[in-house]
Specification:
The protein is an alpha+beta fold. It contains 14 helices and ten strands. The protein folds into two domains: 197 residues, no CATH class; 192 residues, no CATH class. The two termini are 26 Å apart.
Length: 403
């Protein structure tokens, strides 16, 4: 029997039992759709979380020392470690901002204009960044993240030109950036360091830290060790002093996030795959029923010269056709379901609660789709093999006597 004849026979069999076929493949459809939807949605959330850290997050290094690093220390460190592309002090201070009946916790980040790229705050969505002149003069200007702008004003454009009370004064929003780690009820503002100093003063001091941006292609682990060694030497800090100097790379945090989300995606995929197993059992049950109902047909085919291999191939083709149909429907439904869940998650503020901003875009992997589709075909072959072999082993004479 040719492949064309097998396909025609399989499709004719499915068409003859449309209701039963649809109910049988339901488990396959649910399983494939669940795998595609969940892995795509988790991948989209993972990408949004990583993007919220900034384009250069993997190259960022946070440097902490028990003895505060001065401007001269930083200049010396950059000369000693040529792999450092940019380095500077970042001041942080906290305050409350109330508008109407809502209250927000504001983290003010003092970042000079030449360090915005290093801290991942240079990708504009609307407006502009502040200039070097504004940094040096301590102009009361600020950048806000997209999520913060959406919380306060509903969209990015409406945020431009608005003022926010920060400690002892107000700052004007001149730009909205893509990124930031704002959750519901909290805001992050980026402004010049001189502005931070003028707004908060000595009564509410800032907390300085040093941020460095490594050159492209730098081994981040080795760079962190080198920075720690140079800082210890500069500040004469002994090795045995606990946590006296540390240099931590954002790359390790991103790797940990990717590892966690990958494991979570694997677990969710495994749970969804249970539906595939249930669907496979349903297909085996249907094929066994088909064999029982078509015993006389099998006898006639054998009498007309069909071999056991032909009978096996016929029933395997039917079970495979069921799974292929279920796989195609599952991929389509999974695609639509992933977009629906992504829109719901973005609109409900779940991404903001996780510390990211923007919209969730499902991450569809061709490899995942092909794997899910291959699994559905494999299920058709595996769970259809026993009924097919049972049909092939039937005695033709007994089959012809069957009523």
């Amino acid at each position: 029997m040719s492949a064309r004849d097998l396909i025609q026979e399989a499709l004719h069999s499915l068409e003859a039992n449309k209701g039963r076929s649809l109910l049988t493949i339901l488990g396959i459809v649910i399983g494939i759709a669940s795998v595609i939807a969940m892995t795509s949605l988790i991948g989209g959330i993972q990408n949004s979380l990583v993007n919220s850290l900034g384009l250069n997050a993997a190259r960022m290094v946070q440097i902490y020392s028990s003895q505060e690093l001065t401007e001269s220390d930083i200049e010396k460190l950059q000369k000693l470690v040529p792999q450092i592309e940019q380095i500077g002090i970042v001041d942080s201070a906290y305050t409350e901002y109330k508008t109407g009946d809502k209250s927000y916790t504001v983290m003010a980040q003092g970042v000079d204009s030449d360090m915005l790229d290093a801290v991942g705050a240079s990708k504009l969505v609307a407006g502009r960044t502040y200039s070097q002149a504004e940094s040096q003069s301590g102009s009361r200007v600020a950048l806000i993240s997209r999520n913060g702008a959406d919380q306060l004003y509903g969209n990015e454009q409406d945020a431009l030109g608005k003022t926010i009370k920060v400690s002892n004064g107000e700052v004007q929003i001149v730009g909205v950036i893509d990124g930031g780690s704002d959750s519901m009820g909290s805001l992050t503002l980026y402004m010049p360091r001189e502005t931070i100093s003028g707004l908060f003063g000595d009564e509410n001091p800032s907390f300085p830290s040093v941020t460095a941006l490594a050159a492209e292609g730098t081994d981040m682990d080795e760079l962190c060790k080198t920075i720690e060694s140079k800082v210890r030497a500069m500040k004469d800090i002994e090795e045995d002093e606990y946590d006296s100097v540390s240099a931590t790379s954002m790359k390790s945090a991103i790797d940990a996030l990717n590892s966690f989300m990958g494991a979570f995606s694997l677990i969710m995929g495994a749970v969804a795959s249970i539906s595939l197993l249930v669907g496979g059992i349903g297909i085996m049950n249907m094929m066994l029923t088909n064999v029982t109902e078509r015993i006389r047909e099998i006898g006639i085919r054998r009498a007309l010269g069909a071999s056991r291999r032909d009978i096996t191939a016929q029933f395997l083709a039917e079970s495979s056709a069921l799974c292929v149909t279920g796989g195609l429907l599952g991929v389509l439904i999974g695609y639509l379901l992933a977009w629906g869940l992504a829109m719901f998650a973005s609109g409900s503020g779940i991404l903001g609660e996780l510390g990211a901003s923007g919209q969730i875009t499902p991450s569809f992997s061709i490899a995942t789709v092909l794997l899910a589709f291959a699994v559905s075909v494999g299920i058709g072959v595996i769970f259809g093999f026993y009924p097919a072999r049972r049909a092939a082993k039937l005695d033709p004479v007994e089959c012809l006597r069957y009523q």
